[in-house]
Each structure stands twice: as structure tokens, then as C-alpha cells.
Input
Amino acid sequence: MSTDERASGEIDEGGFRVSLSNFDGPFDLLLNLITKRELDITEVSLSAVTDEFIAYLADLGPDENLDEASEFLVVAATLLDMKVAGLLPQGELVDAEAVALLEARDLLFARLLQYRAFKEVSVWFADRITREDARHTRDVPLDERYRARTPELQWTVSLDDFAAIATLAFAPREIPTVGLDHLHAPQVSIREQAAIVVSALRTSGSVTFRELAAGADGPGVIVARFISILELYRHAAVSFEQLEPLGELTVRWVADTWSDENLATLGADYDT
Amino acid sequence: MTPDDRRIAMRLEAMLIVADEPMSVVNLATAVGTPVPAVRVALQALRADYDGEADGPRRGFELREVGGGWRVYVREELDGVVTEFVGSQAPARLSQAALETLAVIAYKQPVTRSQVAQIRAVNVDSVVRTLLGRGLITEMHSDPETGAMHYGTTSLLLQKLGIDSVDELPPISPLLDDGADGFEGIDGVDAL
Amino acid sequence: MTPDDRRIAMRLEAMLIVADEPMSVVNLATAVGTPVPAVRVALQALRADYDGEADGPRRGFELREVGGGWRVYVREELDGVVTEFVGSQAPARLSQAALETLAVIAYKQPVTRSQVAQIRAVNVDSVVRTLLGRGLITEMHSDPETGAMHYGTTSLLLQKLGIDSVDELPPISPLLDDGADGFEGIDGVDAL
Output
């Protein structure tokens, strides 16, 4: 079985399908078509893919093999990055220039295809390693007589030095990481922020996200407001308008019926 | 073959028979006291000789250029004979996650953990640790500004793959060229 | 030489190239699936072949019958080439990496290479070889299940450190929160 068949077979099992105006089938096939340039990437609606993806994730049971779904982790991470990039123009998760260079859609697919290329080539790695493990090489200890002329070992380490070296050697060699513990992010309530957002929207009907985020006290609050808008969107209370990628995002209040009860359950997913 | 060529070949054979890891051409040249280009020629000749392409018979062993050096191996078709007798144990296999991480590092080296994590969309810290412990990757240098460690592959990995250099890695999906503009560091892939 | 003879010779060569001690004719016969007398004849022929007494050139290695078995050795007249190279490669002093690995083995013996690699978070294969070569550590026993070799220190190390037994190694401070569980079985450390 070729790498291609193996990869697609695996994804087919995973069963993430998309239904777009110009394509209906497994997501993997969609990627294949784009790879082979049988489908123009610019004709693929990113928002439609996003919707399908969210729906797919919602249906994923807890028992699903996440290893097989790793490709979708890339989708999720990329979608999140794009949101963050939109939220914070100088976002650190995505190189601002890269975002500017590529349309959001291109970014998603470029990343997916990149990940996929590495995933495919990892099959080659596995095959080669298996094959090479079966090979036998001459690996015979050096005869003592060849060591005869080896220069005498100069030993300069005292017993205490040796213990010090041991201490050093046993010290846990953690891979260095940048600690985040010092960032004491205050808890921000999505519900509270949603209340502010709802009140602003019901007053004006239509507000840009820039206006909604204005006066927010810190990035955490901006993120919470953004999430609250996504939650409101899930409740069909708002709609979005964005004329160009990374352009001004306008949020419009479209709820026919709305009560504070809706607000009380909003963002329950984020409760811990 | 001149007597002098023969003398070099014999010295090389002596070195190769005691080597317990691939011997670089430079080391071999030092050992046999002959300039590198002549050693290179002599090694090619020996390989052909063992393969039965010179006057003599095909040997049960062969000379391979692997992991940046030359080493004597049992001829592949005879591995079965040896395996039965030596009864070598299968080494621990790498997980899919480790293989993918290894692939990213191999193609994008030198590369930081966070760059790898971005491509794989998951945290790769423990996988990187495993690969370091197995000697398949190594710390290359840390970024002078951020202090982030850059990783690359080792000659042990090349040996495990049975190739001599990263140039022999298969080219990866040409589609990557397109998106490459936005992805710093993919240049290495273009070069393949 | 018939094709069948050649087939036997190749199989013998495959076995001899991986053997790290002399192999008896009986063992070789079993391995290559050929009766003992035929193997004996084939070995004689190979020896003559490597000695340049057949059609081919004289090799840098030779086949010798030693202690009831056959093994490939560097041809005696070329011993100097190997000795000189080995001597030039062996550093007079141990590297920091070698010292740290030695310390880990000293305090945790008997210990396998992979256990040492885990503690040091790097591959230690070549360092272990150096330490073995220097006679500072030795192979103790192999794990009955995994076959992994356990290493320990030698009296030469004790001599260098000026102590009579590993019990006299100074206790090392328990700054290792999670590393501490790796110390079970080391007296002196438990006592901390």
C-alpha cells in the first residue's frame, strides 16, 4: 500500500466530511484535490469548512482515537491562531507578516498540507528504520593489544570532585522551558463580559469589535469578550460581517428573543 | 591496480575490520596516511570489489557509506543467515508521534521545539526528550536572543535510516513550496 | 570453485564478519546449513583467498583458527596501522561527558546504558565505549529478559579515586527531588 493510500485510508476512517457548494466528500479527498490542483483553493469557503469542523468536533466521542485525529488538531490550532491574530493584530502565535502574506484560507491549507507532508514522510522513516534494524554490521570490540600504545589516562579528579560531578550528572536535566507561572492572569468571567457585550449591542444594534474591545482592561478581558461573542453566535443572537480578512469585524444583534436566562447559561462550557 | 593502490586498500581493510562505527574518510585518510581523494577512490574500488564487480567473487559482506562514514555490513541478502544465529532482539520501536517529530526536525533543522510544536499542533517536549535520549537528535545551538534551543539530527539517525547524509532524505510534497513564503525555515526543503 | 562452494563461502563470510569471538566449525556448519567437512574445506579456501593465494589480492584482514574456532583478524603486519590510529584517537583526559557518565555508573551500578541515557538525557553509547576501553567500567551481567548489559565500575577506578570500595564514595546531596527515586539500592544515598 502506498503512502498516499495509507494516509487517505486512515482519514476516511476518521470520517471528517465536508459539504460545500462545489465539493461534497471526505475532507482528506478535498486536500488531495487541492494538492493535485484539481480544485482551486480560493474556491473553498473557509467559513463553511470551519462550521463543518466544529460540527465534527462536537460529534467526536470521548473514545475517539485522538492520534488519528491529529490532523484535525492542526485544523483547530490554525483556526484558533487566526482568531487570535484577528483579535490581537500583533499576535505572537502567528507571525503577523505571514498572516498578511497569506489569506487565512491559504494559511489553513498550507499548514494542513505541510503537516500532512511530514506525516507521510514519517512512514518512510518508519520503513527505513525497520529495514535497517534488520541489518547486521561488524561491531567487534577492539582487541586489547591495540590499546597498548594508547597514552596513559591523565586522572585529575579527586574523590570530592567526583562526587560533585555525580551531583551535577544526577541533577534533573529538564528541557528548558519558559515558565508561565509568574503570569497571574486574573479570572475573567465570560458571562460578565457577555453582559457588557449584550448591553452594548442591544443599545446600538451594530458595533465593531474594535469598539467592543475598547476600554477593556487587559488582553484577558478582550479574549473573554471575543469568546462571549462566539457564544452569542452559537445562540444565534449575533451575526458577523467582515469585508476582508483581518479587516474590521462588525457584530450585529440579530436575536429575536433574548432573556437574561440565556445569559445565565452562556459560556457554561468554560466553567470549571 | 598498482602495488601502491593495493597497499592503501589493505590498510583500509585493516581499519574497517576493527571499526565499531562508521569511519569518516578523513579519519581513514589519517589512519592509512594517504590523502583524502585517494582514500575515496580506494573505498569505491573496495566496495565494487566486495560486490563482485572487480575480478574477485562477490563477498558475504559489503562496504556501505552510512551516517557520514564507511562500515562493513553483512550483505543484505544474507542477513537471514546471521539473524537466525545471532538471534538479535528487536529494538524498541518509535511511536508515530516520535516519527513525525523526527521527520519535522530532519527536514527543518536547526529547529526549535516551539517551531516543531507549531507544525504538529501539539506539545512535543516529551517526544524531544525521548529522541535526545536515543541519540537520534542533538542540541545544536541556542538562539542568542530568545535562548531557545535548536535541534538537529545525528549521524546515528542517518545510520538508522541507512543513509549517508540528510541530502538523501526523500523530497517531501512539492506543494510545500507554494505555502513556503509564509513559513520561515522551509528553505531547506526547497533545496532538496 | 563451483557456484555452490561460492554460496557456502558467502554465508561463512557473513557469519565471520559479525562474530566477536572465534566460531567453532560445528557452529558455523549449523549457521550456514552445510556439513562440517564441507565447511572445513570452505574455511581453508577462504583463508587462502584472503592471504592472496587464490586469484584475488591479499587482504588487510586474515582468517585465523584460534582456540578451536575461526575468526577474522587484522593481518598481523598491519597491526601497527591500527595501533597508531587508536593511540592517536584516545584522548589523554576524560571529557566532561565521560566523567558525568562514569559518575552515574559509579553511583547507580549495576546500570544499563539506556538507564544512564535517561538520567543524562543524551545518548551515551560512544562514551560508554570509551570508558570500557579505558578499563574504568566493565560489563557485569546481561538482563535475562531484555538482554540489556549492566555496567559497573572497576578496581581501576577505585584506585584512581584512592578508595577501596564503592561504599566509600561520598554521599551525594539529595537536590534531586524527582531524581531521588532513582537511587534505591545505593547505600549511603538512602541514609541521607
Remarks:
- Strands of chain C lie at 61-66, 69-74, 111-112, 137-142, 149-153.
- Chain C touches chain A through 45 residues (CB under 8 Å).
- The CA atoms of residues 171 and 189 of chain C lie 6 Å apart.
- Residues 90-168 of chain C form a domain with the Arc Repressor Mutant, subunit A fold (CATH 1.10.10.10).
